[in-house]
Design goal:
Layout (H helix, E strand, L loop, with lengths): L3 H52 L21 E5 L4 E4 L3 E5 L27 H10 L17 E13 L2 E13 L5 E9 L1 H53 L14 H50 L6 H25 L7 E4 H10 L8 E5 L4 E4 L1 H18 L4 E8 L2 E8 L20 H4 L9 H11 L3 E6 L5 E7 L8
Parallel strand pairs: 8-10
Antiparallel strand pairs: 1-2, 1-6, 3-4, 4-5, 5-6, 7-9, 10-11, 11-13, 12-13
Helix pairs in contact: 1-3, 4-5, 5-9, 7-9
């Protein structure tokens, strides 16, 4: 599945499906529990009502035949004694389970005396006289452990089924103990139909089963459309990048959406990358063109001199040929160093004494046109490449020799938290407008181009690149003598061993 849209749609659909299934199960469980509780309350209320009716019978003259029971098929009732003998039952009850008593027809009393439990017949006068003494004040004489007449006990619940008037169903039953007017403990079983619970739970389950696929289709479709719309700019960026790659035209740019989201930032970053890449390629092309031009002159001059010397040996200018060869060698070395710097060559990690380096470099320049004066403090060390730093100093001194009139001064000092290597001359200086331009590659000012010994315009560019790779800076200002003052500022080496 390579499409981001497909992955997003499938993922969103799966997450919603899991959430909906979990929520649906929770809803069904909650609905089932609530409706069961409602049925328990209905059964409890009915059982207590029947129990109160039994408890309110005249002591000694309880009549179950005259007991009013609901004729509602949703609320079947059984009343039985402790021995399990059915005393009365609601109308049209044909079958019942879950109460512990499956009988649906009241049993007849085995004795005609006393309580009137059989079919609701009243007791004899004699028994009534006896009971009057025993049950006055709704209490029984004799054993204090016997339950009081009209006392209602705890209630319990159970699940079962019943058939009422030919209709079977599930029920919740509430069972409660009560002491009737004859002092006998009887059990009241009152039921409440669970048809509403089953109907509600079934309807909810069917609705969820039907609605879930539809909802998942809607979620998947909406996610697909939203993701497609969101990724449309990305596809535009991809197509434009493919066209740029095929045409190699780095001047083209990808479309930027008029938004502030991640896609817009991606487009802007891509265009910035293309701009930097275009500039780099342009610099590379210009570098190759300038290098070809710079190499052409000494090679052509050297070839001319060699051809003349071959035809007329007496006219061979050996010093000129050597000078052209040295110039060609220096240019090749500069180009090679620039190539290494452009490739990201890192500066070395050696500890270099700037004062010692300056003294060594100046001492070797015995053939300079203008003598170089040096003031260098002791013990000023930096971390880097000794060869590259020597190249920077050499390039700065070469530049000063080309432009100086009578003096070139070099110095090494500590200034603030940095070490400064400075080279100054008393030439014409560099105007403020040209002070950044002279650090570009193959750039030479007009007066330098008019000199026969002018360089190729790479020395200062190399010097600044090396300075930046050593975490330093190279700047040019006006010297006290009126010429140019170049200052290389570098961080000092950390204390301790390198």
């Amino acid at each position: 599945m390579a499409s981001v849209r497909a992955k997003a749609s499938l993922g969103a659909t799966a997450v919603v499906a899991v959430a909906l299934v979990a929520a649906g199960i929770a809803v069904l469980i909650s609905l089932h529990s609530n409706l069961t509780g409602q049925a328990d309350r209905e059964a409890d209320s009915l059982a207590r009502k029947v129990a109160l009716d039994i408890a309110s019978q005249v002591p000694g003259r309880t009549s179950y035949a005259g007991l009013e029971l609901p004729d509602d098929p949703d609320h079947p009732v059984q009343v039985a004694d402790e021995s399990g003998r059915l005393l009365t039952v609601s109308e049209d009850l044909e079958r019942i389970s879950g109460t512990g008593l499956s009988a649906v027809t009241p049993a007849k009393s085995p004795s005609p005396q006393g309580t009137g439990l059989a079919g609701g017949d009243d007791s004899d006068d004699d028994s009534g006289d006896d009971s009057g003494d025993d049950h006055g004040g709704r209490g029984r004489g004799g054993d204090d452990d016997d339950p009081a007449i009209g006392e209602i006990g705890d209630i319990s619940y159970s699940s079962g089924s019943a058939t009422v008037d030919g209709t079977a169903g599930e029920y919740r039953f509430a069972t409660i103990e009560v002491t009737d007017g004859s002092g006998e403990t009887v059990l009241v079983h009152a039921g409440a139909s669970l048809a509403a619970r089953q109907s509600a739970v079934g309807t909810a389950a069917v609705a969820m089963l039907v609605g879930l696929p539809v909802l998942l289709l809607v979620v998947g479709g909406v996610t697909w459309l939203v993701t497609r719309r969101a990724l449309r700019p990305v596809e535009g960026i991809r197509r434009e990048m493919a066209a740029i790659t095929a045409s190699e035209d780095l001047s083209r740019r990808v479309p930027e959406p008029a938004t502030y989201d991640e896609v817009a930032r991606l487009a802007r970053t891509t265009n910035e990358t293309l701009t930097a890449l275009e500039a780099a390629v342009e610099r590379q092309r210009r570098f190759v063109a300038d290098a070809s031009h710079e190499l052409r002159s000494p090679i052509a001059s050297l070839r001319t001199q060699l051809e003349v010397g071959d035809a007329h040996p007496e006219l061979l200018d050996v010093p000129g040929a050597v000078q052209d060869t040295v110039r060609l060698q220096q240019l090749a070395a500069d180009l090679l160093l620039l190539a290494r710097l452009d490739a990201g060559e890192r500066a070395g990690r050696a500890r270099v004494d700037l004062g010692a380096l300056a003294r060594e470099e100046v001492s070797q320049r015995t053939a300079d046109r203008v003598p170089v004066s040096l003031e260098a403090a002791q013990g000023l060390e930096v971390t880097g490449s000794r060869g590259q730093l020597a190249r920077v100093l050499g390039n700065l001194l070469d530049n000063a020799q080309r432009h100086a009139k009578t003096s070139v001064a070099a110095s090494v000092r500590r200034e603030g938290g940095q070490l400064v290597l400075a080279v100054a001359d008393d030439g014409s200086g560099v105007s403020e407008a040209e002070r950044e331009r002279i650090f570009e590659r193959f750039v030479r000012l007009d007066d330098a181009r008019s000199r026969d010994d002018g360089g190729a315009g790479l020395g200062l560019a190399i010097a600044r690149d090396v300075a930046e790779r050593h975490a330093g800076t190279l700047t040019v200002t006006r010297a006290p003598a009126g010429g140019a003052l170049f200052e290389l500022r570098l961080p000092p080496a950390p204390s301790g061993p390198g």
